[in-house]
Amino acid sequence: IPTQPKIIGVIETQNIEISTINVFDVFGKNVLSIAPKSSKATIEGANLTTGLYFAEIRTASGTETVKLVKR
């Protein structure tokens, strides 16, 4: 039986395409980068350790950073 990926966040905008999402650990190291090119993206953290992360979300409207917690 395949294991389910560990999802640590779902990012969704109101009809604005997300160009990139970069996930950083608390030390500022980029640990994950995705380019969803859609208004919804799932951040899978199967390869990330438990802890606090920051997701930098870039769209045509600008950049926003949100906190993510992997349990």
Molecular structure report:
- The protein has 71 residues and is an all-beta fold.
- 0% of the residues lie in helices and 59% in strands.
- The protein has strands at 7-12, 18-25, 30-34, 40-44, 51-59, 62-70.
- The protein has a 4-stranded antiparallel sheet, with no helix packed on it. The protein has a two-stranded antiparallel ribbon with strand order 1-4.
- The radius of gyration is 12 Å and the shape is globular.
The number of helical runs is: 0
Q: Uncertain runs with pLDDT below 50, 5 residues or more?
A: none
Mean of pLDDT:
90
Instruction: Please state the overall shape, judged from the principal axes of the Cα atoms.
Output: globular
* Major pleated sheet: 4 strands, antiparallel
Structural class: mainly beta
Biggest sheet: strands side by side, in what order? 3-2-5-6
Secondary-structure element sequence? Answer: EEEEEE
| Computed CA radius of gyration, to the nearest angstrom | 12 Å
* Spatial gap, N to C terminus: 22 Å
The share of residues in helices is under 10%
Kindly estimate the percentage of residues that lie in beta strands according to DSSP. Answer: over 45%
SS elements, strand count: 6
Topology record:
Blueprint: E1 7-12, E2 18-25, E3 30-34, E4 40-44, E5 51-59, E6 62-70
Antiparallel strand pairs: 1-4, 2-3, 2-5, 5-6
